[in-house]
Amino acid sequence: MSKPRQHAAQDAPSVPGVHRVALVSGANRGLGFEVARQLAARGYSVLLGARDPAKGRQAAKQIAGDVAAVPLDVTDARQIAEIAAWIEREHGRLDVLVNNAGGHADSNARAESAAPADVRAALETNLLGAWQLSSALLPLMRRHRYGRIVNVTSGCAGVTAPDAIGYPAYRVSKAALNAYTRALAAEVAGSGILVNAVCPGWLATGLGGPGGGPVERGAASVVAAACQPEPGINGALLRDGQRIAW
Fold it and tell me: pLDDT at position 162, please?
């Protein structure tokens, strides 16, 4: 991994005198890319995580600011350990983690007949990927008693979501991510670390498909949670900066 390229920041960091470092998983396209762009515009050093290093480097070149592409497959425990060690070595801190990497939108599947392998794959990425990455990077946040972890979820996983057919593995994996968010938030309460889930809404991305809303608005919801000032909200499900029902 090479050191980040240096560019002039468009905005000052969120706290005077403190240079913030953020990692966004699944950031070479769609929502993750826009989150990385908006964080860079705020003056953060952004680590743009991507499974495909070439696509990550290409994406990083398109963002103005201090942005570096890093290879990151959230289902690979060894790679997670390597990126955590690299961040500690190169930056000595991590202030923001956006667990955006996700997938397995099994729109045509049915809970009755879903293949167990497909369910496991959804859980590996959407739940365990965020879980492993957060666990590996929390020590860097605890060191400075500051951190913001944002888990990108979906409204279709909420207990108040209307009953609908389709996406069974995706729904269950995101519902599990919501439960993990609440559990971790309770554990870190009072430490200076805030953990929240954000539902960006249906967006016109590769995962969301045509007909969704602007990705810029969805990303702004994620960035708002990532840049919360103290004391901030902890252990909530947010959309457009507001609490919504789990």
Answer: 63
